[in-house]
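User: I've been trying to design a sequence by hand for this structure and keep getting stuck. Would you show me what you'd pick, starting by listing the structure so we're on the same page?

Assistant: Good idea, let's start from the same input. This is the structure you sent:
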């Protein structure tokens, strides 16, 4: 018997949890970043899912747990998400192959921020985050994305002179 094992008498058997109590707290952005970074270092778990499609980004869900999910996205040069949110989920992504660019609004004047996200780097964000991710490099890219709770909806935005304007919303039935 390991030192952590304890025999539970029948009288201590747990009482049923109330409805909804099984829903676990969302994972933090930092934990999600660790998940995608660890996965990126194990290409045998995802390399066979990489597929380059000319019509649009190719994506495949690799992990579906109660409290988080992980997607692989393959990008050809020029492919992009457009500005979008994550329906209140926290998230993180890392570039496993190639390089991506991330656009977001930030700073004191909510100006446009452009970040290079080369292979080996990761970004993590909270539930209100809106960004546009694109492959502006000359070659393909592969990225890994984790969300907690799993994505339930995603709204799209146009960047106009006055800021971001919400244009549409999609749900899992479109994925
Ligand atoms: Fe995103």
């Amino acid at each position: 018997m390991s030192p952590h094992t304890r025999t539970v008498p029948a009288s201590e058997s747990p009482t049923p949890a109330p409805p909804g109590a099984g829903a676990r707290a969302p994972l933090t952005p930092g934990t999600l970043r660790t998940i995608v970074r660890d996965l990126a270092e194990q290409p045998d778990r995802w390399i066979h899912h990489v597929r380059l499609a000319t019509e649009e980004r190719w994506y495949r869900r690799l992990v579906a747990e109660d409290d988080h999910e992980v997607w692989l996205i393959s990008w050809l040069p020029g492919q992009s998400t457009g500005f979008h949110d994550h329906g209140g989920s926290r998230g993180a992504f890392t570039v496993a192959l190639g390089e991506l660019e991330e656009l977001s609004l930030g700073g004191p004047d909510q100006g446009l921020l452009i970040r290079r996200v080369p292979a080996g780097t990761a970004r993590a964000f909270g539930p209100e985050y809106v960004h546009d991710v694109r492959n502006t490099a000359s070659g393909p890219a592969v990225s890994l994305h984790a969300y907690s709770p799993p994505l339930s909806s995603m709204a799209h935005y146009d960047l106009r002179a006055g800021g971001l304007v919400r244009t549409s919303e999609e749900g899992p039935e479109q994925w």
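That's my pick for every position. To get oriented when you compare it with your attempt: The longest strand covers residues 90-97. The helical segments are 29-40.
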